[in-house]
Structure formats: C-alpha cells, structure tokens
Design goal:
Order of helices and strands: HHHEHEHHEHEHEEHEHHHH
Strand content: 5-15%
Structural class: alpha/beta
Strand order of the largest sheet: 3-2-4-1-5-6-7
Mean pLDDT: 82
Bound molecules: guanosine-5'-diphosphate
Shape: globular
Number of strands: 7
Largest sheet: 7 strands, parallel
Helix content: 40-55%
Radius of gyration: 24 Å
Low-confidence stretches: 1-34, 165-170
Amino acid sequence: MSDLSPRLPAWVPPGAGKAFACREMPGVAAPSPAPAVPTVVVARPAPAELAERLVAGDRSALARAITLVESNAPRHRSDAREVIEMVSNRAGQSRRIGISGVPGAGKSTFIEVFGNYLCDRGRRLAVLAVDPSSSLSGGSILGDKTRMELLSRRQECFIRPSPAGGALGGVTRKTRETILLCEAAGYDTILVETVGVGQSEITVRSMVDCFLLLMIAGAGDELQGIKKGIIEIADLIAVNKADGNNRNRVRAARAELERVTSFLNPFTTDWRPPVLAVSALEREGLKETWAEINRFFTHIAESGEQTERRKHQALEWWRGLVEQELRTRFFSDPRIASEAARLEAEILAGLKPPSIAAEEVLDLIIPNPA
Ligand code: GDP
C-alpha cells in the first residue's frame, strides 16, 4: 500500500488516506494471489489524494468528491467525511447566493447570461441546484444537462445538477457539503438555484448569504412570492423579461413590488430589498444586478451580519444533522426495530396508548431522567 503523505500539502493530517490508497471500484474483483495474466484493477482515489487534487483545482476530483458526498453508502460516507475534513479550512471564502423563481421565470436563462457576465469579470462560479421535484417524482425541474450550454463550457464555471432522489433534508445536507467542496476548489461565487414551489426556498435561504428572487410580470399575479412569504426572505428581487412589449408590465410590477417591500420587515437588518428590471434574453440589467449584489455584500460585511449569519447557519446545520442522524441510527438499531414492531402492533390493537409506547422505546436508549 503506498503512502501518499510525502506528496500532501501541510494541511493534510499525517497518514491520512493510507488505509484507502488501494481500494478498488465497487464490483471489481480483487486480483487472485498470483495471476498468470495481471487483472486490471481500477483504483478509486483515496480521500487524501482526492482532497489534494480538488484544492489544486482538478474539476474531475471535485465532481468525484461531490459524488462521494451524495452517496449514502456507509463506506462512501466515511471517505466523504475525510475529504470534507481535509479541505474544510479552505472553504468559506465565497459569496453564496441563492436564486429562486417559479418554473418559467427564466432562472436557467438568467444564470446562463449572468454567469457568463461574472466569469468575464474574473469570478470563478459554481452553480448548484436544490430541486424538490427530484425527491418527489424522480423527475427534475432543475439540473437538465441541456441548460446553460455556454456557461457549462467555460473553465471558470462548474455546474452541478441536483442530486437525484432522497428527501429534501438529504439534499440539503449534500448541497451544504457541496458548497464547501466548491469553495475549497477555488470557486468564489456559488449560485444555488431552486424552484419557487415550496419548502426549498427556505432550505436554500438557510445556506446562502444573499437570496435573489427572480419574478415575472403579468402572469396575472405579481404576488407570486407574496403568498408563500418568499418575498419576505429575499434580499434582491429581479423582474425578468423586461423586453419587447413586456417592458411596461415589468415597470408596473416593479412599482408594485417596491410598494410591497417598503412595508415588509426586511430579512437582512437595515436592508430594503431593491427591485430591478432585467432581461436575461437581451442581457439587460446584469450590471445593475451585480452592483446591487456587491452593495449587499458590503452592507452585510460592514454590519457584521454575514459573520453572524454564517455562524447561525452552521449551528442550525449541525442541529439538523444530529437530529437526522439520531433518527436514522435509532430506527436501524436491531433492538429498537424489534421493540418498535412489537409496540406498533400493540398500538394498532388498541392495547397501548402511543404516548406510553413512545416512552418505552425511548427508555431503551436514553432513560428519561425524571
Ligand atoms: P426556468 O424554468 O425558470 O429555468 O426558466 P427558463 O430559463 O427555462 O425560461 C423559460 C422561458 O422564458 C424560456 O422560453 C426562455 O427563453 C424565456 N425567457 C427567459 N428569460 C427571458 C427574458 O429575459 N425575456 C424573454 N422574453 N423570455 C425569456
């Protein structure tokens, strides 16, 4: 087994990755002791090697690390943890920006042109997606490979579609870790895209510094975000499709939204969300949008809210993970599983009140101190 340590940068703990250096791909048979014809074994990079390549800017290593993070296989999870641990001191330096809007608002068109605009100005951009549909239907509203064609060909940009399957909670855990990996790989602007159809905006809001809501005028409902409270969590609103004979309607929508935001409690202290008119199609309003984003980041840096927000988000993330993991480990414990099955049968038969049954099963692990 080779020792990778001498080639590792100083921040990688000594001996890290030794145990993983010669792992094979799953499903590939190990070579027999003395094969007449050498068996080809495709080596999976050890976590330390993956981490090293990732921070050196190797895109395929980044993609691989994300796949590891997205996997639920226990072995992958421990490898993923190693990678995250090794690179985490390189993370945290980016601008994390959420982008939401109803399907058809123009999110992918906007990200394509805005992303190109940012790359032209020297930003290194990662585009991630949180797609609630992938867990519900197996389908995907976001992350279609044909989207953002120009952007996906740029070296300064890394696009990662949403992970398929899994509950939104699972996707969230992975997206947060994916953000860290992208930051460690040197991406200084992270766009997290989600669809304005429910809980996913709240989820994305809890992992970004700045939240941009993309809206459209004249859909008979300037209140697209108001009903669901999405406007309340936005730091910036951009009304898209301000082109052709739609310009007047965008102007009216903008005025209405400005009125609405003037009486809402801002999500970010002392920041009234600006309402912009943009046209992704005509590439208009990009400069203004970037200027407002810059102004926003200056504001939260000066007020200290950025630091506080990230600390709060980290705590929230940690609590969520502990709760999620507790639940998973609790119910997968064989003793709990058999006891739970017995108690469920008793509840169904009306023999035991659920509250008593809950106490009984919990007492097996953590007795109530009272
Ligand atoms: P998404 O579902 O939010 O990602 O929306 P898309 O980016 O797929 O856009 C939906 C439709 O709106 C597509 O037909 C786009 O060509 C169109 N579209 C997007 N941006 C603009 C724009 O600025 N102006 C006009 N007129 N159409 C746009």
